[in-house]
Design brief:
alpha+beta, about 100 residues
Length: about 100
Amino acid sequence: MAEPKTISVNIYGQDYMLKSTGDEDYIHKIAKIVQERMKEVESTGLDANSQQLKIAVLAAMNIADELLQSEDKKNRLIKRIETKGNSFIEYIDDRIKEIESTKEK
């Protein structure tokens, strides 16, 4: 396992030193998403100076909502694929049985 490295990111005017074994570009991409979400919340009219924590919490809530929606969509797709896969396997099994019964005659 790779050694963690320190990666500096700036989110909403604050510098953060993060330790991660992940790709630096990926960490910066995450920070950019957080920054964008905080700016979106700020644009709704909250005063950035007095409401920074509130903005951060609301941005986190938005991100968590998107995550849960994505997980739900992924789980529905997995179930759909499993159902179709099982139907296909059943179809193949039936065809094999038909072929075998034809050969026996």
